[in-house]
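Practice problem: Glycosyltransferase
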Amino acid sequence: MSNSDSRPRLLIVIPNRGMGGAQRAFHDHSVELGKYYQVTEVIFNEDEADMYPSGNPVRSLGVPGGGSPLAKIQNFWQRVTRLRELKKELNCDVSVSHLEGADYINLLSKGQEKAIVLIQGSKVHDRNINGAVGMLRKKVLMPWLYQRADKMVTVSRDIIPEMTETFGVPRHKLLAINNSFEVEHVRQLSLEPLDAAMQAVYESAPVLVTSGRLAIQKNQAPLLDVFAALLKRKPAKLVFIGDGELRQDLLDHARKLGLRVYQAMDQPAPLTPDFDVYFVGLQQNPFKFIRPATAFVFPSAWEGFPLALGEAMTCGVPVVSTDCPTGPREMLAPTVEAPKTPLRQAEWAEFGILMPMLTEPASLSADIACWTDTLEQLLNDAPARQRLGEAARLRSNDFTHKRIFGQWKELIDGLLNRKARA
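Answer key — structure tokens:
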């Protein structure tokens, strides 16, 4: 950061680096906002490698995580203290935090700078917020601390009612700004050819592809049940892009269903079209797997404004997604309000197909049947696939970096003007 640089000074804060949707969004914010402001990235510690380097300065608070409950409390306050000192050292004008842990530190260290909190997902429906600590977060920390923010940005419009009704955030402090995508770059990468072995898989049968961390939020296990039922009706392949803590559970579930499973991660067997389900792991270029697929399937239990879904739309492939909170409906059916009761049948929307969630035990059998019927219908209807793929591609133009970060610049400049008048 040059001393001669007269642009406003912006800190963006995240607990950790590494690989994930939040970290990718953090990278995009650093790069795009760095075109207008002096940006410094702040992390709690350097435990994880920087998977998405931006080129902007990075400052670590140097405080580890883990340890006993007492150590965690001490580390928490040490982070608050060190971020407060850093804000003073850099004469910070605006601080933006990504992820809840960074939100707390950002807001408790608040001084004269304007503080923005970015809410990247549903808090009400997040099943990772549970137990006594989850109750403390929902009932005490969020309602108390979020009041300190000058502005709260939600990545989806449908998170705003959560923040007002559940956490008591004043409506005037809330603004929805969607996530953005490197639309042209994604489209360019999607044109890279598959290697010969994978190309043979794609040529052997219709391919359904899904992308995301193998984790509870993404809810991939019922998708295997759907696929097993579909496979009894017509040939198809299912490709999983990504990795995560539930990999072995998903492999076991697939095999229990009688599916032939290929996995690229552990001394794989030769890649041939003889398998039903393909776990290809993390991919530097996932888009070359998505563009030639017959359809993209997205069974998440909850979201924010999902990058994987938006990037699949950018690739011009028809998308089939749960109508989960939040994001998919806003992306696929932006003019249609959410139903009063959860979907129990397919909704062929303007930019994709919204489907029942696959999380309710009482209706799971019927919901799996609905998914199976809908996917069979889609696979048998080439004109519908072409129409939905093109509609999805055009819709993704609404989420370019230029469009979305124009909204961010308007927000930050407005806060800076307000600060100057104070």
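Discussion: The domain at 183-398 is CATH 3.40.50.2000 (Rossmann fold). Students who identified this feature from the tokens alone can consider the problem solved.
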